[in-house]
Amino acid sequence: MNSKHLNDLMSFLDDSPCNFYAVKSISERLDNAGFTRLDRRDAWNLVKGGKYYTTQNDSSIFAFVVGEGPVEKGFKIIAAHSDSPGFRIKPNAEMISDGNILKLNTEVYGGPILYTWFDRPLSIAGRVILKSDDPLNPKTRLVKIDRPILTIPHLAIHFNRAVNEGNPLSKQKDMLPVIAKLNDIAEKDNFVLNLVAKELGVDPKEIIDFDLSLFDTTKACTVGADNEFLTSGRIDDLEMAHAAVTSLIESKQGEMTRIAAIFDNEETGSGTKQGACSPVFTNILRRINDCVGGTGETYLRAVASSFMISADNAHGVHPNYVEKQDPTNHPVLGGGPVVKINANCKYMTDAESSAIFKTICERAGVPCQFFVNHSDVAGGSTLGNKLTSQIEIRGVDMGAAQWAMHSARECASVADVDYTIAAFTEFFNV
Ligand code: ZN
Known about the structure:
By secondary structure, this protein is α/β, with parallel strands linked by helices. The strands form four sheets. Strands 1-2-3-13-4-14-18-16-17 form a nine-stranded mixed β-sheet, with helices on both faces. Strands 11-12-20-19-15 form a five-stranded mixed β-sheet. A hairpin with a 6-residue loop joins strand 19 and strand 20. It is globular. The structure holds zinc ion (ZN). The site of zinc ion has 6 residues, from helix 4. The site of zinc ion (ZN) has 6 residues, from helix 4.
């Protein structure tokens, strides 16, 4: 199966083992496309037609192209998220077991499917904070160990014959990864810190703290007799983050300001300074308005004319569990973007915004489908309704259909990669 953007998406997934690296990979793409990096602490000198991006906490990123028209023409926004469920390494993580086996104490981030993390070649990625002369502004370095160094070994079936009849797991007992067999028990002290310091080529005493996650080192690949499917970690939501940024880069100049907004911490409810519940994004919109000569009124007029696509992957109908899906709406892998609808407004989609998105898909020659919850199943929510608590904007919740959401390795459709980017590019171009 041919796809224009598949290889680029697979490189992006492999280069982005955690939120910080997703933002780094996006920054590099934007740099290559001629975007200028802005620091939120500096004064911004924006020009119409200019391409810019800024980050928050190194884990959210906001890229925009200032519209050529009057600022009150408004904003076209595509939002997605940079984070994925998994495991974070706790402070003082080292725990020693019989035979000097060293394991690490971890904490679950978000809602991973725990047993998909067993028996995989894992490694560590994230950021470390280093000493500097200014206590309020320590230095940050990203670190990614590009080889498998950990695994979470499953208990043998001989110790639990009922394992295949449903096996409750303890996050604290069952899920701790093994990292080493030590020669000397004294090597246990600051093992993680020393490992990371060596990787970065810095003195361990320079490291004050860290945000480190586990990731599966297995690369993205296609499966299916004709390579119809994509399998990788973190497809939710890096597939949409990649589509948002790619379409921003590939779209044409226009009157409205075009924005790709990639937020962190969606998986834990978006309640951080870099998440969709914080004012970080609306402050950027106001700032764009102010920097091109807008007023308080032009900002409100711009918001009233704006439209947002909240892009977070959707549940495709699972071939083994058709009954889990709504009886009459079966979004399928390869069937194009999925519009998400909820009567209790967990999604921002309404008839008008759905109609707008469907029209865009039609113009792009892309099929489009619907997701609604089976009425006996409580569904999730995503970025859209979090953002509407900050800004009264029209918009639609959508995503590409995928299987195994929140597994260590998820599965989506190759055809939907280009469908989504075509629809997003059309949205920016209309
Ligand atoms: Zn998601």
